[in-house]
Amino acid sequence: RNWTYCPNDAVGSGQLPRFAERLKAAEGENYTKLNPLYAAWAYDAMYLAKAAMEATKSVDGPTLSKWIEANAKNFKTGVSGPLDASANNHFLMSGTETIVLGIELDKPRSDGLYKRAAGC
To answer: Helix (H, G, I), strand (E, B), or coil: what is residue 10?
Structure first.
């Protein structure tokens, strides 16, 4: 959802474009070598792992997994959208609030977002 736009959404107003601007400022010339979508996934993953380690005071994998399963829904990064996890599903971006259908994927808008097919 955070990587798509609806017809009335202002250019540059989404979570991903704002993240991309921060990434561009931080990376300078290297920005052209990066993909903001992948960088957003990495950003969210690292901050979720950091939150889990700080909350549990552990780096033990099973301990971190249990914390993430219990707390991913409450973790707000603002880049990739709502996260979700369970004992059966560690694919963090699997909820209907996160994944939506985009169209015209060969024509991203000037801010890098894709047109949302429905749900506007």
So the answer is: coil
Helix (H, G, I), strand (E, B) or coil at 5: strand
- Those residues of the chain that have pLDDT short of 50 are none
Q: How far apart are CA 61 and CA 102, in angstroms?
A: 35
Distance CA 1, CA 93 (A): 10
Per-residue confidence (pLDDT) for residue 99, from 0 to 100: 81
The whole-angstrom separation of Cα 86 and Cα 92 is 9
**How much is the pLDDT for 64?**
97
- Cα angle 19, 25, 28; round to 5: 125
Q: Where are the beta strands (DSSP E) in 1-120?
A: 4-5, 102-103, 114-116
Q: Which two tokens stand for residue 73?
A: 């829904």
